[in-house]
Amino acid sequence: MSENKTAAPVIDRPIVRVLGMAIIFLAGFGLCSPVRAQCRYRPASPRLPIGLKLTIRAQKPVAETSRSLIIYVELSNESNTAIKMRKNWDTSLNYELHVRDGSGKEAPLTEPEREVRTRPIHGSGDDVTLAPGERDTYQEDLSNIYNISVPGSYTVEACREIHDWGNIYSNKIVVPFITPAPEAK
């Protein structure tokens, strides 16, 4: 008695390879958790450890409109508690700067920053621990975040989300922005 065997269909191997790579890529993209802007205007946590401090300072005391201004950010842990936080590979997502004009209105965001603050983006990073006595430092060019084109005094502050604790806000600094002097010809 002979068995009637049907041959399995032949699958074109390059197609299988491409499909396999596409599946791996999409699965990896799906495993990257959505990263959001840090604070999203939520209030500071009332239960942060005593001794955890977020401090900012400006590169110069007076800035020029539509020009670069570096803001230095430092998170210091002088508490007796280890602090867990997310360290994103895109470091611009670790701290969120806020700038308000003299009337308290937020300065206009650049287009890329508006997108970061209004919708989740996929990114990667690591959970890290800031041990007692350690510091985390960062610097950001304010012109990458805000379009400050009108002269006046602007208030700047930073914010960072801390795992299991909530948001921490920095000191506020006031930076006068002036119109740049015309360039000599």
Tag the structure with descriptive keywords:
185 residues; Immunoglobulin-like; 5-stranded mixed sheet; 3-stranded antiparallel sheet; 2 helices
Question: Overview of this structure, please?
Answer:
- There is one protein chain.
- The chain is an alpha+beta fold and 185 residues long.
- The chain has a single domain, classed as Sandwich (Immunoglobulin-like), CATH 2.60.40.2360.
- It has helices spanning 13-31, 111-118; strands at residues 34-35, 52-58, 63-64, 70-77, 83-88, 96-100, 121-122, 125-130, 135-141, 152-162, 166-169, 173-178.
- Strands 3, 6, 10, 11 and 12 form a five-stranded mixed β-sheet that branches. It has a three-stranded antiparallel β-sheet with strand order 2-4-9, with no helix packed on it.
- Strand 10 and strand 11 form a beta hairpin.
- The radius of gyration is 24 Å and the shape is globular.
- It starts with 12 loop residues before the first helix and ends in a 7-residue tail after the last strand.
- The model is unreliable at 24-37 (pLDDT under 50).
| Number of DSSP-assigned strands | 12
CATH C-level class: Mainly Beta
| Biggest sheet layout | 5 strands, mixed
CATH architecture: Sandwich
So what's the oligomer here? single chain
Rg over C-alpha atoms, rounded to the nearest angstrom? 24 Å
Kindly name the structural category: alpha+beta
The CA-CA distance between the termini, in Å, is 100 Å
Low-confidence stretches: 24-37
From the spread of the alpha carbons, the general shape counts as globular
Number of domains: 1
Any idea of the CATH topology? Immunoglobulin-like
Order of helices and strands: HEEEEEEHEEEEEE
Summed up, the helix count is 2
CATH superfamily: Intracellular proteinase inhibitor BsuPI
What is the averaged pLDDT score? Answer: 82
Helix content: 10-25%
Sheet-strand content, in percent, reads 35-45%
